Amino acid sequence: MKVEKYSRGKGADLKALRDKKLKGQLAVKEKLYGQSAKAAAKAEKWLMPSEEGFLEPDNLEKTYRFPQESIVKEVDILSSRKPFDMILPVLGPYTIEYTSNGRYMLVGGRKGHLAMMDMLNMDLIKEFQVRETVHDVAFLHNEQMYAVAQKKYPYIYNQHGVEIHCLKEHGKALKLQFLPKHFLLASINSFGQLHYQDVSTGEMIANYRTGLGRTDVMRVNPYNAVIGLGHADGKVTMWKPTSVKPLVTMLCHHGPVTAVAFDRGGHLMATAGVDFDRGGHLMATAGVDSKIKIWDLRKYEVIKSYAAPAQSLDFSQKGLLACSNGSQVEIYRDFGGHDYRLYMKHRMMKGYQFGKVLFRPYEDILGIGHSMGLSSILVPGSGEPNFDTFIDNPMETTKQKREKEIHALLDKLPPDTIMLNPNFIATVRAPKKKEKKTKKEIEEEMEEAIEATKNTEHKKTKGRSKPSKRAKKKEEDVFRAKRPFLEQSKEVEGRPDKKQRIGEGVELPKALQRFSKKPQS
């Protein structure tokens, strides 16, 4: 089965070929294709030993009818300890954020409560109170530093809760996003201004007015590092730090956009907000018009639309889409061909208002921040079961962490590399078209060519050296030299011989007279 997965389709029919040379060449290639498929299957067996497991219903059962209690009973002991409900009714609603390796979780309460937790050991690392409103939280390159959007300005803290920086240039930031490959912290403030700041040097890279008013809907596409913003007029705009105007403006909803999400592969966008699909081409958005839409960003078309409201959207590593509404969260799964259908449901006690939903990387866990605290539920098949230790390692040591940080700084990409199609960087630039010469340059070249032909002396030939014949021959040479320049000048003027110009004295038929230009008085 695994060899078939990596095969290149049905092989060539060698028996029907008569050409022995071609037959031999194709036989060698087919053999190489078979060897490469076997090698890939063998590598997968050793390097990717685990496979994701989804809920499998029997006969007429529906997976969205399975409650969390029955799922927890069937899983292993370690997985059964991961779901929890943390009731914190005083300082909510809460927003959450995970590190890229899924080990650490950052929690921010609207009334100033901040906490960082080690989710592997379920240990509280640091908890403190900032005594002012917290709008959003975001980890920087690792868990050593994180940014918090507070009442007036965003602040940067270290893991011990010590304030390191106050970013006054950002103003009253409502949302924060970090671009790990570029070391850029992006924020959108209450005046609709988008800021990009390099956290490795402290330099402000860009500051743009969106011109579409206040918004708190912001998400980064992990495929190409383009920022997606959802606006009150139903539009979704996409930005990069080197462009004053948005790269793309899409009308997604007939009302304000409430959520935006991009798939971890970068292909989907969902619109209750915005989100993108696997492979860089899907986005999901949700709006006040009670619709969730999934878009294909290659054609900017809707693939799927659902009649449901959503306050928050998120795609998992394996392409599951979570949508929160009120005290209920719904999870959709792609059953093939972008056919997203309801996979799981989870409802909490009446009165709980869900805020942010976020899948934990490399785990089958969905984190929920709500008005009464924090929750974590099991979602089988949502996380990537195999991790690459060179990219994200949940069990990394202090030395590995230090080495990774140094490598990340050395490999930091400049802001110019952010574009809609990142594969464009590796291509060869197409040759520029030759610029057309001006009329003056053509005339000068023509005069030089005429002078050169006049100065050339022809050899005397018997019977053909009469003065009249020599003069006629010179005229022919001059005309031959002028001809290419005359054609060039006609192209510049835009009046080729084939187009006939109608003179002012020509009388048009009555049916066409109303289209003719009237003489200016």
Quick structural gist:
Strands 18, 19, 20, 21, 22 and 23 form a 6-stranded mixed beta sheet that branches. The protein has a 4-stranded antiparallel beta sheet with strand order 1-30-29-28.
Report on the structure:
The protein is of the alpha+beta class. The protein has seven helices and 30 strands. The chain has helices spanning about 1-5, 20-45, 70-75, 75-80, 400-410, 440-455, 465-495, and strands at about 85, 95-100, 105-110, 115-120, 125-130, 135-140, 145-150, 155-160, 165, 175-180, 185-190, 195-200, 205-210, 215-220, 225-230, 235-240, 250, 255-260, 270, 275, 280-285, 290-295, 300-305, 310-315, 320-325, 330-335, 340-345, 355-360, 365-370, 375-380. Strands 18, 19, 20, 21, 22 and 23 form a six-stranded mixed sheet that branches. It has a four-stranded antiparallel sheet with strand order 1-30-29-28. Helix 6 runs antiparallel to helix 7. The chain is extended and about 115 Å long.
- Label the structural class: alpha+beta
- Tell me the strand percentage band: 25-35%
End-to-end Cα distance, whole Å, is 85 Å
Task: Specify the biggest β-sheet.
Answer: 6 strands, mixed
Rounded to the nearest angstrom, the radius of gyration is 33 Å
Number of strands: 30
The residue-averaged pLDDT reads 86
Helix content: 10-25%
Instruction: Report the uncertain regions.
Output: 266-278, 496-500
Tally of individual helices: 7
WD repeats: 264-305
Protein name: BING4 C-terminal domain-containing protein
GO biological process, one term: maturation of SSU-rRNA from tricistronic rRNA transcript (SSU-rRNA, 5.8S rRNA, LSU-rRNA)
Region (Disordered): 431-521
